[in-house]
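Form P-L/3: holo structure prediction, ligand nicotinamide-adenine-dinucleotide.
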Amino acid sequence: MTAKIIDGKAFAATVRAKVATHVTRLKQDHGVTPGLAVVLVGDDPASQIYVRSKGKMTAEVGMASFEHRLDAETSEADLLALIEKLNADSAVHGILVQLPLPDHLNSDLVINAINPAKDVDGFHISNVGLLGTGQKSMVPCTPLGALMMLRDHLGNLAGLEAVVIGRSNIVGKPMAQLLLNDSCTVTICHSKTNDLQAVVRRADIVIAAVGRPEMVPGDWIKPGATVIDVGINRVPNGEKTKLVGDCDFASCVEVAGAITPVPGGVGPMTIACLLANTVTACCRANGWAEPQGLTA
Ligand code: NAD
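OUTPUT (holo model):
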């Protein structure tokens, strides 16, 4: 069997087009432009690329983009003061603090200082709790994008066996929660899991979110399973480097029913969901009807 390739790039383009339509409507009907503030502390090269690409796509869908680039030595007090300012700014509907933060800054403290209604990454403890209890929340963008691709490909997920490899607060745990909310039978694996291969082998849905290049080979995959590869790993490629996922694409594609590529799978969906969350936050803040069908 050769798997269907789930085209995250094309899917994300359709989501961004819908976001752009909603943005136009909000401007026309209410004279309001949804605004996203992105805060970057320090000069981590990967984070700089992400922030640049977020800013570009925010502008492309017609939203206001506010970038705050702070020195790596920025104090916690100064960062918290900026967040307080953004919380109070009515032109800012979404706030994203790019992670990881430099070691001297307490990420939990900083994220929990964001107004939960503006927490478009869905990492604030209130949003985590709301998601965990199946209530309306801001849903973390990467797992949300993965869920959208799964629903689009499989339809109803109820009863399917899902295995999530990775238990981070950013990807693994919220992904597992979303799958549970969709009535999957969910197993979360991590670095201490015994016989990972046997657990993965029984999954109808495999989510790989580890950060280890090509660690999941095709012979771990149940034939016909849907594989969502969240990993983004830069590896040497001759004189240059290339991006690969956490799954060995060449062997997994021969066994899976469907698979997301890296690049061009989950990555583009993450940014599209961030933009969609910002439009949703804008509508909620103003008491307007939320856009339907933008996300899962
Ligand atoms: P993380 O380092 O916070 O978590 C990695 C998880 O993998 C941990 O829970 C750990 O227990 C588990 N793990 C480590 N070694 C393992 C092993 N040998 N077997 C099983 N589990 C193991 O990483 P993260 O932030 O969750 O990111 C995971 C990957 O996803 C990274 O490659 C990251 O770059 C990528 N990512 C992609 C997007 C996107 O938009 N596509 C967004 C976020 C993260």
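COMMENT: The chain has two domains: 30-115, 141-267.
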